[in-house]
Amino acid sequence: MAQRAKNPVAKGRADASLAADAQILDQGWFEFRRQLDYKLAWNGGHLIAVPPKNTSRTCPCCGHVSADNRQTQARFACVECGYENNADVVGAINVLRAGHARCACEVSGAVMPPAAGTHRSDSFRINAGLSAVGIPRL
Questions:
Q1: CB-CB contact of 75 with 13 (8 Å)
Q2: Rounded distance, CA 92 to CA 105, Å?
Q3: How far is Cα of residue 123 from the mean position of the Cα atoms in its chain?
Q4: Number of alpha carbons in the 13 Å side-chain half-sphere of residue 6
Q5: How many CB atoms within 10 Å of residue 109?
Q6: Among 82, 99, 115, 138, fewest CB within 10 Å belongs to which?
Q7: Which one, of 119, 98, 105, lies nearest residue 45 by Cα?
Q8: Is the pTM of this model over 0.85?
Q9: Do residues 59 and 69 lie in contact, with contact meaning Cβ atoms separated by under 8 Å?
């Protein structure tokens, strides 16, 4: 948890930071995922859950996994092949690949088809031009 700043000028910012940290930690992540799954099913999509372990430490080019690949919070630089990119972009690429792999291999429980009867109407989906969603394209 963050500590309070000793500088009185920065005290207001530190208090705001502590409040923001508390709000982030207080969020209901299970409820967020439940709502995401529900909304995807409502619109004809499905949720593919992938394990987050090492998604921001794995090089998307050579597959090398190392904590040293993350030099800073925002910078990714592979120590094996030299690939560099923003760490969030690297994580997104790895999550996308893991989702595609799970979908292609049909890992048990990974692909959740939409629940029957959750759509407002089939004509609504057809007219809206919606397609299956879940893993965004880069």
A1: no
A2: 20
A3: 31
A4: 0
A5: 7
A6: 138
A7: 119
A8: no
A9: yes
- Number of other residues whose CB lies within 10 A of the CB of residue 35: 11
Where are the alpha helices (H) located in the chain, listed in sequence order? 11-26, 29-42, 87-105, 122-128
pLDDT tens, the chain, 138 aa long: 445 455 555 556 667 777 777 776 667 778 888 888 999 999 988 888 888 899 999 999 999 999 999 988 899 999 999 999 999 999 999 999 998 888 887 655 444 454 454 454 444 444 444 445 556 555
C-alpha distances in Å from residue 83, one per residue of 2, 52, 60, 77, 89: 33, 21, 8, 6, 12
CA 104, CA 65: separation in Å to the nearest integer?
23
In three-state secondary structure terms, 65 is strand
Q: How far apart are CA 89 and CA 70, in angstroms?
A: 12
Residue 78 CA: distances (Å) to CA of 53, 54, 62, 72, 93: 17, 13, 9, 12, 14
